[in-house]
Amino acid sequence: MKDMELSKEQVDRKRKKWISAVLLLLIGLLLFFTLFSNTLQSVTLPKVRAEPAASGGVTYKLERSGVLQPVNQADLLNLAGWRIQKVLVKEGEAVKKGQKLVLYDSSSAERELEDEIAQLKKQSIALENIQDQFKLSMVDGDESAIRSVRRELATRNIDISMQQRKIDGLREQLNRQKELTAPFNGIVMKLNAVEGLASNGQPDIVVSNLDLGYQLTFVADGELVDRFTLVVRQPIELRVASEEGNQPARSLEGTIVEITDADSRMVDSPEGGAGATATVRQKQLRIHVADADLKGGEQVTVKLERASSGRGWLVPNEAIHREGERRFILKVEQQRGALGNVFVARKVLIEAIEATEWETMIPADRLYEGDLIILESSEPLQNGNRIRLQ
Amino acid sequence: MRVIRMIQKGLLTALMGVFGLLLLFPIVITFTNSLMTEQELTINYGVIGKLTEVTSSGAETFVNLKWLPDKVTLEQYGELLVYSPNYLLLFWNSAGLVVPIIIGQTVVAALAAYAFAKLNFRGRDSLFLVYLLTMLMPFQVTLVPNYIMADKLGLLHSTGAVILPGVFAAFGVFMLRQFMLHIPYAYIEAAKMDGAGHFRIFLTIILPMVKSGLAALVILLFVDYWNMVEQPLIFINDPFKQPLSVFLSRLSGEWDTVFAASMLYMAPMVLLFLYAETYFIEGVQLSGIKG
Hints:
Radius of gyration of chain B: 24 Å
CATH superfamily of chain B: MetI-like
Strand content of chain A: 35-45%
Number of domains of chain A: 3
Distance between the termini of chain A: 70 Å
Number of helices of chain A: 4
Largest sheet of chain B: none
Helix content of chain A: 25-40%
CATH topology of chain B: MetI-like fold
Strand order of the largest sheet of chain A: 3-16-13-14-15-12-4
Shape of chain A: elongated
CATH architecture of chain B: Orthogonal Bundle
CATH class of chain B: Mainly Alpha
Shape of chain B: globular
Oligomer: heterodimer
Number of strands of chain B: 0
């Protein structure tokens, strides 16, 4: 009886040990999760970056810059390949029509000319000999000799006139090629000529035509061009960046002279996921500027801004996702639970009213004031996923 | 004669088995369902809370009570322990209310019971009667006076408004007095003869003798106050200071955690009972009180 009681007590004690161990384990577990659940959460929940949606309208911006190019320019080069004797102008210098630009060393050509003149003289002397012979033959009265000398005489005359023409040609070439002159009023755009060296195949001088003005060409998205209703012959404002920064930027009036289709641009479509691309229609615009102070090569900027008429929520394009044909954004939804609030990603289907390169305007009824839009997340999100706000 | 007795015994066993199963049924269901996925729970119980819709549409839909989960998962526990830090906060809130009440009431009740059982003073029995009356009154009756008192004491919306009435409740006094009445007065006399004071008698003679009573009291108090809903609901208005019991009573439609939350809620109680089971049964038998 006593043994039984003893063993019963032992069993009871063992049981209690077990239960107290389980109880302690439970308390420890709960304590652990109380302290570390936030840490565990941060490890497992997708982290998102969200921003409140802005209300308003989109502003279309077209900003392009480029370098002004002369409409017409002439490459002046010396075909003779003579050595350059003197360069009379500097790059960027304004020149008048007919102004001498480069002088060439023509001594070799001059020597050649003198040789040819000497040759002519020799031929003239030889002709005199033939004429004397002719006179003698006439006196002799030998018919065949006379005919022979007459033919000789004619040949010599032809030779002399050929030589004369050759000399004239040389002289003209000499006059023409010993210097370069400006073909029109303009500005020296480029100066390749170096004194003492022959031309290296490139034009020695490039002169722009000042009378015809300058032009700027750039490519812009077709949609944007349409949006600004840009048409040919429309005036457009350009700003010239100051060269050294000490002069204030100057504005110029230009005119659109040409709008042509350009190659479409391929862009990564942010909606379609990795590798997806979309084509964007593009147009090339040519703008003509006439201004006496321009030298060519100036950096100019075209800046157009226009606010859209409608109003709605502005959503950054990076926040827009695509699912088939439908587009949607994910917003942060606060779910009230008995255990406090929980943040969940909620899908909002949208249709864009108007869009620019970086933001899209969606109808005002899609979001409420203060709604957070998810821009970025550490993992791909689905509708209803729990998230952690960064 | 023997056969009849055997049949009787068999019948009784069967009947008790059936009742035992009936009592266990909710706990078993809670446990198995705590291992289900959220989807499965929503399919089975989603109709709860939407009953008005169901009746208005005319279609009859019933809760699909399911024993075994299609897929066993600890998802619910994970959701609760990792993603709902507030649940654990409420758990500690419960503990923060229950532990001071149990300690306080046990100490106060033991001292008071000693006085009521073993000391002779004038008006003792009438005072005890008054004590008993407060115990006999339902909680709802004393609610308004309690509320006004807590307000006057500046305890409203703090845990003190729940803890203090708990500490000075009459139940513990009554129960421990019953225990102490069973202790023969001779023990105390003998101690007195040896020169022990009241406090020494109380600590070294009376307390060890009512150990099982104390254990029973602790369990009964734990069950009672762990499960209290009205007091914290009324006295504490910040939902994050309220205990788990209030939260569970509000859980509806949140199928993702409700069963796991119940399991975790039950666990301390069950473990405490198992631990002190022998004392408890002994204590209840001795005092003649049924929980």
